[in-house]
Amino acid sequence: MSFLSATGFFLLGVLLGTILPRFPFLMLSRTRGFNTKLPPHPEPLPLSPHLTQRVLHMRMFYWMGLVVVILPLILGIASVRWGNAAFGFGLWVSSSWLILNRLQYFVGGMPPPWTKQMAVELQVLADKAESSDGCCNWASPHWGVSGVYCPNCNSKLSDMLRPDLGRKRSERRPFGFLYLLLTDGHSVLTFFDQIPVAEEE
Ligand SMILES: [Zn+2]
């Protein structure tokens, strides 16, 4: 096998090992029937039980990756043993990277894009808007890209950045897909947040 074709097979393995375990979050939720209860991307989403449910679904898809990753791992072993070693090695590299990436959270790394606390906070904000201590008489909290706000009184209710929520993205086909692969579901603003800024006292 020439060096060039080995490199090609390796990259193919990496690509497949990157996409396969992310399949649930990349594909499952983007069908039309799955999104009838939510406004189209990128519009802000009104807080509702549907939205809370969606955050929990995305969280499940995210962790499902750790189960689905077994597939490229087995395929990788089989390829190294009986098939194309470069392809198998590529699968192994990207699959083990995914596992490390998911597990880093447990040693104090960056939290996943969707968490249970996020769903709880959304529900608390929605309940508050229904009660008498909402931000205004017509409180209608919406989740925009940079936080939860009320369009009626313009008050910002939470700084929680909005991750991808599994809606069909408004970007044209390959770009939406690439965006998701690069951000892994996180809000892009999360990455700007990592840049340290002087804290205000
Ligand atoms: Zn309001």
Overview features:
elongated, four-stranded antiparallel sheet, 53% helix, binds zinc ion, 201 residues, 8 helices, mainly alpha, single chain
Bound molecules: zinc ion
Number of separate strands: 4
Query: Which consecutive residue ranges, at least 5 long each, have pLDDT under 50?
Result: none
Put simply, the count of helices is 8
Terminal Cα span: 62 Å
In the sheet with the most strands, the strands line up as 1-2-3-4
Morphology: elongated
Element string (H = helix, E = strand): HHEHHHHEEEHH
- Determine the mean pLDDT: 90
Hey, roughly how much beta strand do the residues contain?
5-15%
Supply the number of structural domains: 1
Summing up helix and strand content along with how strands pair, one would put the structural category as mainly alpha
Helix content: 40-55%
